[in-house]
Amino acid sequence: MAGRVDLDGNPIKPITICMIGAGGFIGSHLCEKLMSETPHKVLAVDVSNDKIKHLLEPATLAWADRIEFHRINIKNDSRLEGLIKMADLTINLAAICTPADYNTRPLDTIYSNFIDALPVVKYCSENGKRLIHFSTCEIYGKTIGAFLPKDSPLRQDPAYYVLKEDTSPCIFGPIEKQRWSYACAKQLIERLIYAEGAENGLEFTIVRPFNWIGPRMDFIPGIDGPSEGVPRVLACFSNNLLRREPLKLVDGGESQRTFIYIKDAIEAVLLMIENPARANGHIFNVGNPNNEVTVRQLAEMMTKVYSKVSGESSLETPTIDISSKEFYGEGYDDSDKRIPDMTIINKQLAWNPKTSLWDLLESTLTYQHRTYAEAIKQAMSKSTAN
């Protein structure tokens, strides 16, 4: 840690970071990075600390005096402003961000992603504190290409699909498609943060993640999450593989996505933390445009990777098709492609992702097989016995 310098060669001074949502997937990896590689202190705020327990105990850990856990629900807790005042930087990771919830719990989704974030922005602005706010690639909505005729040659032109922070429009479906409740709430809080910067001088950075993947992501239903819940696509497929069930392809699995390894993404966030002069006032896409696949291709690749890491043969019927209405319920809608333009983050922070899709899937599925396989076998044998 000695002699750490920023991208401009200046010494990096230790800072205190108030991290809201520190106990989640992204927060746990960011806390690990900060503890093992930097001198910074973290005030970790969340309702649960299960994913960061290994950083909090025992008290003899080398960084024990640099991380404190505060069990706070940010909805109605007066202690939040005090913690933001104590810190130099606030990172807000708190959100409902599971697609199955967007049209079944639209009010919770809007409140979590907009209303609950308002005090955080206000406290940072009023107290002159820097804010790194986690948004989403969903704020782009649908691509312009999605509205072109199926046989249009323009569909081959990346200009209609590649998403740029400063020029791409944000195109959402009609109001009755409540799936866009999440994207709309996230976009509005971005606009509010941007306005606080313009009118009141708030120092901010906005992060737009594009499918960050890795160990400890999301939940496996009935094992470390609710039995009835539907996690995001990669955890859904992992759950099917662990239970030896066919992977469900929503509407044929034709949507295209890019996936990035969590450890690559965290490198980008650390650069934002330690280079405020280059990061303030910017919105950054953080994704890997080289790792683009259809959801069907993702299912096929995950089936192969899982066979390799588990030693189990593939199912005779590895996938089945299911409609979005049947899978997600009424009000679901989707975007066809999401490819991040990386020009701004590359120019400002000289950052590029490194890990291939195969390698990130192998790392994630190895962890999941090791962590969950036995628990799922026991759960399945119990349900059979009952």
Automatic annotation (TrEMBL):
Its main location: cytoplasm. Coiled coil: none annotated. Its cofactor is NAD(+). Its EC number is 4.1.1.35. GO terms for cellular component: cytoplasm. It is found in: Cytoplasm. It catalyses: UDP-alpha-D-glucuronate + H(+) = UDP-alpha-D-apiose + CO2; UDP-alpha-D-glucuronate + H(+) = UDP-alpha-D-xylose + CO2. It is an enzyme of class 4 (lyase). Keywords: Cell wall biogenesis/degradation, Cytoplasm, Lyase, NAD. This is UDP-glucuronate decarboxylase. The lineage of its organism: Eukaryota, Viridiplantae, Streptophyta, Embryophyta, Tracheophyta.
